[in-house]
């Protein structure tokens, strides 16, 4: 019996939670309820899509995204863990950590009324300890109800404290980058990743006319992506996060990325729910931390 057939036999709920073979032959969980659907790849613990009924897709996926073991998927919600950006001391280690490149395990599926919930896990291994010498259990809980809830829980299962930075690195689909604005970060301080991490302050809503790569700090509030072209607002609420990253690669960086179409910067923006920069998390043995993003669509 194939992996997918075994997963359906053990966890599937026909018409509600189905396991299918996705792009690159990687196993994908499709969850459907009365108001929408979502798909999650076991590779990377990676939410691939979120599609409320009668709405254009909320999450963006590159046409050039790679779906292969060990590769990071360009789009959806990559799980960035246990470090955000370059490794703090060893640039030879993979950018944004290793969790998004690993195969996660299905822990459980719950169907209750119109709510669908999937729980995946990833724990340390000889390979992970060679890169990051700690014992951990990582749990991803994806819940579909009238919104999409994504919770990343870290547990320190070892005997020594460790420090993480992390992100739910959400890629959002937009009508056109020229049309949109992001509110909720007005007056927030940010570190400009394009200007030697200089500390600046956001004045007004965020709009785009060039590459933007900013770590907004000391912010726990919701962000709202206002998209007149799609006649909607997308709200990104969060818990367990004191920083938010906003990124659009614009022309030059888009052209430098093999898994990103040259013009695709026009149709996406990242609003990332993070513990980044100084918003790092120290986790003692036996303790844990939850990082949660809640994504919902509202009328304009
Ligand atoms: O979150 C913004 C960022 O750190 C950018 O600097 C850019 O590197 C982006 O993440 C994508 O990183 P990746 O490793 O997925 O290509």
Outline the fold blueprint.
Layout: H1 3-11, E1 17-21, E2 27-33, E3 36-41, E4 46-52, E5 79-80, E6 105-112, E7 115-123, H2 126-131, E8 136-144, E9 148-156, E10 162-164, E11 166-168, E12 171-173, E13 181-183, E14 189-192, E15 198-201, E16 212-217, E17 223-227, E18 232-239, E19 243-248, H3 250-256, E20 268-275, E21 281-283, E22 288-299
Antiparallel strand pairs: 1-2, 2-3, 3-4, 5-11, 6-7, 7-8, 8-9, 9-22, 10-21, 11-20, 12-20, 13-17, 14-15, 14-16, 16-19, 17-18, 18-22, 19-20
Bound molecules: 6-O-phosphono-beta-D-tagatofuranose.
**How can the largest sheet be summarized?**
8 strands, antiparallel
Q: Number of helix segments? A: 3
**What's the total count of β strands?**
22
What is the level-2 CATH architecture name?
Distorted Sandwich
CATH class: Mainly Beta
Q: Give unreliable regions as ranges.
A: none
Report the structural category. mainly beta
* Overall domain count: 1
**What's the pLDDT, averaged over the residues?**
97
Question: Radius of gyration in whole Å, from Cα?
Answer: 18 Å
CATH topology: Beta-galactosidase, Chain A, domain 5
Shape: globular
Q: N-to-C terminal Cα separation, in Å? A: 48 Å
> What ligand molecules are bound, each kind once?
6-O-phosphono-beta-D-tagatofuranose
Give the helix proportion (percent range).
Answer: under 10%
Reading the helices and strands in chain order gives HEEEEEEEHEEEEEEEEEEEEHEEE
Beta content comes to 35-45%
């Amino acid at each position: 019996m194939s992996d997918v057939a075994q997963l359906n036999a053990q966890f599937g709920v026909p018409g509600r939670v189905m396991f299918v073979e996705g792009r690159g032959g990687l196993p994908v969980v499709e969850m459907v309820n009365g108001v929408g659907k979502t798909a999650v790849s076991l590779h990377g613990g990676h939410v691939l899509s979120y599609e409320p009924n009668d709405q254009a897709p909320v999450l963006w996926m590159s046409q050039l995204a790679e779906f292969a073991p060990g590769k990071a998927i360009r789009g959806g919600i990559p799980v960035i863990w246990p470090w955000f950006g370059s490794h703090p001391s060893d640039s030879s280690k993979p950018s944004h950590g290793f969790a998004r490149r690993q195969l996660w395990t299905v822990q459980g599926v719950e169907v209750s009324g119109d709510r669908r919930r999937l729980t995946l896990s990833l724990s340390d291994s000889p390979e992970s300890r060679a890169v990051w010498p700690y014992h951990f259990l990582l749990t991803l809980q994806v819940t579909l109800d009238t919104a999409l809830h994504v919770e990343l829980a870290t547990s320190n299962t070892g005997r020594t404290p460790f420090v993480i930075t992390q992100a739910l690195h959400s890629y959002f689909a937009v009508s056109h980058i020229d049309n949109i604005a992001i509110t909720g970060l007005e007056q927030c301080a940010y570190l400009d990743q394009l200007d030697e991490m200089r500390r600046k302050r956001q004045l007004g809503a965020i709009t785009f006319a060039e590459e933007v790569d900013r770590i907004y700090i000391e912010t726990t509030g919701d962000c709202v992506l206002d998209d007149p072209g799609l006649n909607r607002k997308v709200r990104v609420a969060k818990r367990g996060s004191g920083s938010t990253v906003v990124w659009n690669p614009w022309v030059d960086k888009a052209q430098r990325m093999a898994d990103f179409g040259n013009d695709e910067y026009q149709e996406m923006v990242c609003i990332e729910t993070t513990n980044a920069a100084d918003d790092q998390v120290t986790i003692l043995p036996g303790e844990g931390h939850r990082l949660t993003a809640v994504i919902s669509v509202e009328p304009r």
